[in-house]
Amino acid sequence: VSLGPTLSVVTVADSREALEKELATLRGGSGTVALVPTMGALHEGHLTLIDRAKELADSVAVSVFVNRLQFGPNEDFRTYPRALERDVRLATERGARLVFAPDETVMYPRATPDIQVEPGRLGDRLCGAFRPGHFRGVLTVVAKLFGLLRPDVAIFGRKDYQQALLIRRMVEDLDLGVRIEVAPTVREHDGLALSSRNAYLSAPERADALGLWRALDAADRLFRGGEVRSQSLLAAFQERIAAHAHLAPQYVEIVHPDTLTPLESAVPGAVMAAAVFCGSTRLIDNVVFGAAADPRIAVGSRA
Ligand code: PAF
């Protein structure tokens, strides 16, 4: 699909050749390309990643692909919101030059690839403990996207802290030669982190959902007030969550930003990461301790 002379868009590409052709046009010899990988249902968080991508490269490509490999058997692969036409419009309006939206057979010609990227121990922690195989699916599709688009830089959101850390580590360990940028979480006016899954929330659930960020923020404020004992910070989080009828915590941990190992005492730059169910919708979020008061701390954290 072509939306005019400056916007070349690949929608449901049934050939890798179309992608190759578009990429050659974008690069025009030496132009650099930034990739924003997404599963679609774009929101302001994704669009902010496009803004950042524009600062980092000559042109921006957005991939839209709901990746079956990263969903568990009882998860929401089938119901995950899909809105390709809208996504293409939003991404191009925001300045993306290429939208790569492959269908399943283009991405996985052999249905399930024989070779996949194993995240190792880092992938078993936090979300990985509750979503077996999830990060294998994420790393596999991201490695494939890097292979298909060969971007100079790729941008991910900090809301998915563990994902960003694992992708960075994959690029280092496998020498994939892509610069990884991690952009701050974009929030609603009341603090709820933007997520495509927020669309699942009923009105009363939505009202409670902000409790997740409030609880993380409360722990961060306690930390900044001098409390470093993880036990106390975690208790403060749990107390806040318990005040919301629709929220049920799955996990909350205070971890080292690079190793994800639990810390008994929090330090600036440590990450408090949590997943809660809001009704049947699983929400994740995190706070980097001290970063709100000192932006240098966010820079120092690896993801
Ligand atoms: O964060 C996401 O939307 C997905 O996990 C990603 C990185 C696009 C891989 O499917």
Give me the Rg, rounded: 19 Å
- Reading the helices and strands in chain order gives HEHEHEHHHEHEHHEEEH
| Helical proportion, percent range | 25-40%
How many strands, which pairing sense, and closed or not: the largest β-sheet?
Answer: 5 strands, parallel
Can you describe this structure?
The protein has helices at 16-27, 44-56, 84-93, 104-107, 127-130, 134-149, 161-173, 203-224, 230-242, 295-300; strands at 33-38, 59-64, 98-100, 153-157, 179-183, 247-255, 271-278, 281-288. The two termini are 35 Å apart. It is an alpha/beta fold and 303 residues long. Strand 2, helix 3 (84-93) and strand 3 form a beta-alpha-beta unit. Helix 8 packs antiparallel against helix 9 (230-242). The strands form two sheets. The protein has a five-stranded parallel β-sheet, with helices on both faces. A three-stranded antiparallel β-sheet has the order 6-7-8, with helices on one face. 37% of the residues lie in helices and 17% in strands. It binds pantoate. Pantoate binds next to strand 1 and helix 6.
